Amino acid sequence: MLPILLLLLQLSLLSPSSAADFCVGDPSLPTSPLGTFSCKKESAVTATDFIFSGSLATPGNVSNLLKAAVSPAFSSQFPGLNGLGLSLARLDIDVDGVIPLHTHPAASELLLVTQGSILAGFISTSNAVYCETLNQGDLMVFPQGLLHFQVACGDSPAVALASFSSPSPGLQITSIALFGNSLPSELVEKVTFLDDAQVKKLKKVLGGTG
Ligand SMILES: *[C@@H]1O[C@H](CO)[C@@H](O)[C@H](O)[C@H]1NC(C)=O
């Protein structure tokens, strides 16, 4: 009996449960180079650290160029997600609205349409296009790092929930990267094959200079 008890004791000491169960982020401490937060002291952690009572019940403000809004619950807004490998956002896309071509460098995405219809697609690194109209209840996955977009279809606004395989998925919007920057227009024309008028027009719309 005694050897078995000793064995069980040893196993419990070795088991992963002796590592920290969680690492609620402390935004007042410096982040790691990859953007993860340092842990809040466990004695200071409470149930509210694991709850996001932000704005996900409320439609985002779609009075903008995109006619769309993303309301994130990423580790910056919800530090309880820190280190846990997942996060969520609410998408509101008004009639004619668009979440333009973009990537999340650090995460795959699952999109669940909860209202209306969304034309969604992604482009693989071999330039294959995977594009479909999603209706309420449909779920689409966008593999990590690939360019993708969402457009509202029909004559009613669309709502969706997007979950990510990272608490901090990252975001790069292609048009803003190309035209919202300070590179000289001639250089942007050179590296995109676009003409001068188009580049200058998009720089103006998207806040670029140069
Ligand atoms: C929505 O955003 C617009 C443009 O930034 C702003 O003028 C307006 O006040 C906002 N509406 C609400 C309800 O916050």
TrEMBL record:
Disulfide bonds join C23-C39. Residues 1-19 form the signal peptide. One of its GO terms (cellular component) is apoplast. Its main location: secreted. Keywords: Apoplast, Disulfide bond, Manganese, Metal-binding, Secreted, Signal. Coiled coil: none annotated. It holds the Pfam family Cupin_1. Oxalate binds at H104, E109. Mn(2+) binds at H102, H104, E109, H148. The keyword Signal applies. Gene3D superfamilies: Jelly Rolls. It is found in: Secreted, Extracellular space, Apoplast. One of its GO terms (molecular function) is manganese ion binding. Residues 63-200 form the Cupin type-1 domain. SUPFAM superfamilies: RmlC-like cupins. Belongs to the germin family. This is Germin-like protein. It comes from Platanthera zijinensis.
